[in-house]
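2024-03-11 09:14:02 INFO worker-7 job=invfold-0412 stage=load source=structure_tokens
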């Protein structure tokens, strides 16, 4: 007598569905601009730097070796002289930085 029947309410349409996925989209956008994009930019710059190395450049490898490039080979290798008469073959992608860049001859 005092209790009225309860009826289920309908969902508010497509706006409720979009509203549930909005936080996920925002999280992905933030992750893209804070993590993924800078990492891709850094990898692209490193690839360009490694492709531009040539004979005479002074480089640092991932292992911490500092030396001068003696020869750039075709199969993604460079020959680095770390001391007088001591030459080491190094994979080109392990070069971290170029310290002194030589200018091309005219």
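2024-03-11 09:14:09 INFO worker-7 stage=emit residues=106
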């Amino acid at each position: 007598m005092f209790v009225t029947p309860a009826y289920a309410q309908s969902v508010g349409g497509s706006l409720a569905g979009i509203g549930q996925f909005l936080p996920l989209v925002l999280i992905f956008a933030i992750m893209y601009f804070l993590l993924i994009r800078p990492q891709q930019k850094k990898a692209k710059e490193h690839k360009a730097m490694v492709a531009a190395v040539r004979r005479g450049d002074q480089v640092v490898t991932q292992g911490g070796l500092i030396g001068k490039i003696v020869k750039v080979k075709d199969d993604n290798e460079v020959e680095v002289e770390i001391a007088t008469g001591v030459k080491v073959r190094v994979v080109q992608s392990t070069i971290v930085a170029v310290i002194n860049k030589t200018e091309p001859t005219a």
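2024-03-11 09:14:09 INFO worker-7 stage=report msg="The chain has two domains: 13-51, 54-106."
2024-03-11 09:14:10 INFO worker-7 job finished
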